[in-house]
Write a structure and sequence with these properties.
Helix 1 crosses helix 13, helix 4 packs across helix 7 and helix 12 runs antiparallel to helix 13. By secondary structure, this protein is mainly alpha-helical. It is built from 13 helices and no strands. The longest helix is centred in the last third of the chain and has 40 residues. The protein has one domain: MetI-like fold (Orthogonal Bundle).
């Protein structure tokens, strides 16, 4: 039987729905604004001062200027290589480190953990970091964007806590069956911590996708530039052309090209995120509640 709602409950539910719809509208409007602005005519857009709900003078000039760069496809391929290979190695190394630090019979575990956490607050700085990468002969290679960042301390702590939440009885049963540490990690712990692993994939993957600073330091060959560095180059080229007045309509295009670059760099992540979103809250909570 369906319980009849009172008048006060109806008012409360309607109020909740209205508030949630307002929150959704406020949250989605920036994405909508960026999308319609990228398809707007630059000259008309610069004169517009109110809220924007539809393209003003529909134009593809911003996208044409973006895709006119011959290095855009190469940037996508470089970023995909860095993302796929880097994320895989990140998960492997972080899992190994988290498994080691989550075992109860490890000697000097606390001092080792203290040394790892120490790196979250203090680092050698940019110059020692650059010199280290250069002396390892990793500069001007895509590996300079992967190997120095194989383990993120914050992600290691989350995964370690998730591993510690698994009952000891499961590990003891596996050992009685003759399972090695590698078997326990790959066939027992990692499958049970799939939500946390999914969150780590999202963290590392988004980090690689948005990264451009290290690439600007270590890479000199344009053929190795990742997507974000190519997009930054496109934006700077249009800005410089604007300041030099080489094109009459360059200023108007440079205003809308910023939004087109956001769309080009964001859409792939938006397609992947829904598949991992269901694991996000569960994975973070599992890795954060028990210490």
């Amino acid at each position: 039987m369906r319980i009849k709602e009172s008048f006060g409950e109806r008012v409360f539910n309607i109020g909740n729905i209205i508030i949630m719809l307002l929150i959704v509208a406020v949250t989605l409007y920036p994405f909508w604004y960026v999308t319609v602005a990228s398809f707007s005519d630059g000259a008309q857009y610069m004169k517009h001062t109110r809220l924007l709900f539809k393209p003003i003078g529909f134009s593809l000039a911003a996208y044409k200027a973006t895709f006119a760069n011959s290095m855009l496809g190469r940037g996508y391929l470089n970023t995909l290589f860095i993302l796929i290979v880097g994320t895989f190695l990140n998960i492997v190394m972080t899992s190994l480190g988290a498994y080691f630090l989550s075992r109860k019979n490890v000697m000097w575990k606390k001092p080792i953990m203290f040394g790892i956490v120490f790196t979250m607050y203090f680092s050698g700085g940019l110059i020692p970091f650059y010199l280290t990468v250069k002396q390892l002969h990793l500069d001007n290679t895509l590996w300079s964007l992967i190997i120095p960042n194989l383990v993120n301390t914050f992600n290691l702590i989350i995964m370690r806590t998730a591993f510690m939440a698994i009952p000891d009885s499961l590990e003891e049963s596996a050992k009685l069956d003759g399972a090695s540490h590698f078997t326990i990690l790959t066939r027992l712990i990692i499958p049970l911590c799939a939500p946390t692993i999914a969150v780590m994939v999202l963290y590392y993957g988004v980090g690689y996708w948005n990264s451009w600073f290290n690439a600007s330091i270590f890479l000199r060959d344009r053929g190795k530039f990742p997507l974000q560095l190519i997009l930054r180059e496109i934006l700077l080229q249009n800005t410089n052309a604007d300041s030099n007045n080489t094109l009459i309509d360059q200023e108007s295009i440079s205003e809308t090209i910023k939004y087109a670059l956001i769309i080009v760099s964001t859409v792939p992540v938006l397609f992947v995120y829904p598949f991992l979103q269901k694991y996000f809250v569960k994975g973070v909570m599992v890795g954060a509640l028990k210490e």
